[in-house]
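Input set for joint prediction.
Command: fold jointly, output tokens.
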Amino acid sequence: MSQRVPTVRDVAARAGVSVGTVSKALNNRGQLREETRARVVAAARELGFRPNSLAQGLQSGRTYTVAVITTDRFGRFGNPLMLGVEDALGADRVSVFLCDTRDDPIREHHHAETLDERRVDGIIVAGRRKQTRAPLAVASGVPVVYVIAQSSDPSDFCVTTDDVGGGVLAARHLLASGRTRIGHITGPERFADPRERAAGLSSVLDSAGLDLAGGQVFYGEWSEDWGRRAAEMLLHAAPDTDAIFCGSDQIARGVVETLRDRRLRVPGDIAVVGFDNWEPMAAGCRPPLTTVDPNLREVGRVAATRLLDMIAGRPVEGGVETVPAWLMLRESTGVREAGA
Amino acid sequence: MSQRVPTVRDVAARAGVSVGTVSKALNNRGQLREETRARVVAAARELGFRPNSLAQGLQSGRTYTVAVITTDRFGRFGNPLMLGVEDALGADRVSVFLCDTRDDPIREHHHAETLDERRVDGIIVAGRRKQTRAPLAVASGVPVVYVIAQSSDPSDFCVTTDDVGGGVLAARHLLASGRTRIGHITGPERFADPRERAAGLSSVLDSAGLDLAGGQVFYGEWSEDWGRRAAEMLLHAAPDTDAIFCGSDQIARGVVETLRDRRLRVPGDIAVVGFDNWEPMAAGCRPPLTTVDPNLREVGRVAATRLLDMIAGRPVEGGVETVPAWLMLRESTGVREAGA
DNA sequence: TTGTAAGCGTTATCAA
DNA sequence: TTGATAACGCTTACAA
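tokens >
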């Protein structure tokens, strides 16, 4: 099976030089006759030589490897984040260990140990929700960047989404489209993310001298079903509602369904804004959903970039960096139909 | 920043023994006085010693690392697969490099090179669709397992989903629920996956002496919108249809929406079966979708297990191993309501 | 029972 | 311009 892989020594022998020369030739270091360098390069190619990165890492102390520890790789959350991480890391030939803790502290600890042993250059710890967590138990000296969930140690660096800003974005857009009776249906009140989104909405409504339709934020679950039920409740409390901002695209789907059942047109009678920009959910909706994109890909990119900074020894201040959200415009907030 | 990490030498010094003794003590090898072993272990713990896995790998030729090369980490596909892979690998302290090619051959080649250099123990190449692809261009001798997309080299090993079987499952279930006028709406005809699902359905209908409602398979796109449009077409062609098997949960969502618009009850008038068991789509549907689960987690588990076999030198025959699908029962195929 | 030393595949230093 | 040689941190014969 496992045939012998050529080493610098093999290349050296074939090129008729010493191993030191091979190393210099292949890494463009030191002074070498051009002819020699060419001969070495040729020999290396002929043998299909690939430098053993373990040996390189052992010698250099750098592994060109970072790990992403995530509590959930399911669904909408982890994927755009990973994309952004790879955007930033890919250029540098940095490879990514993916570690899923499945929300289990034991697993996390286990992974942290393994990563220590593997001498990764840095670690990105990604949480699913905005909350404070204990710092990762890893060898001191290894750079760590926290994503979304931030470390309880204020000297740690964290990058996160702008949920308040997302709420503001949605609210301003609805006001600009001429809506004034805006309701809000979202996830569990015990989580910070939905509370921040609601805060963003409220701040805009306050400045405009408007009240929340239905007189309250409808906190509930992250499900379509909650969207359906809450929409009933909201419309019961405030039948003249002309817009609903939803804390997730899933909730928005449920809301839209209820509206359709009630023969209310979207956006004709009621405009709907979602949150997440979870493509299959938002684009598949009828009508397609205008929704706040939390910019997770950019979050990932920023996290990885800062991590590279730290690895390179460039100072990165502790604290939280917030990445702005943006609004994906689709039809659910389109201009009111003529005659509506 | 980067403080010095303790080595065997440090542990040896602290325990007052030699490095060789440390190694033996920590790895339970050779004959050692129990007292000495304990002293070494204590010293190691006090120093927070973690063996450098690069050095271990260099020396042993094993890195306890495998890579998963995937063409798309988006959405429903990659996540359950990765879960299964980690199920099988986790026990062994094997870490996973995640490489996303973004469907770009250049990127794939680039990743293959890097993985060669890193001396990964094995590689899982995951495609999104059932098709034949060129073998991964990697150093000979490195075990590779293909997932879903199979290698054109018949001596390579591939594990894949049972789409024919999935179609059979759906069909039998519908027949068993008393449906006889079954239509089929699915994805693009140019892909093998939807064709196989259709073949499974047809085989069952044939044996039962039944025809496909609407007289044809409705091939189209993997979108809700296609589901909506195709449902109209199907009902136009065959108004007495009493069940629709859909090639994806997204399509099924669209179908269900059209049925609701037409005041047709699901499952009362028409039963609907989806494909994928993509939780948020299928469970969020009203009514929740009965759907074929292609068992991707198991596919991942099998792939990783076979890869470990190959790495361990246990022979694994080339060819394709098919993992059975199963049916997730929800309400969209429930018993007909009384009086319907 | 323990210590010494060679070797894994690189890179880097210093001589030649 | 090139070649020896010593690290890097570990495991493992083999010697003590």
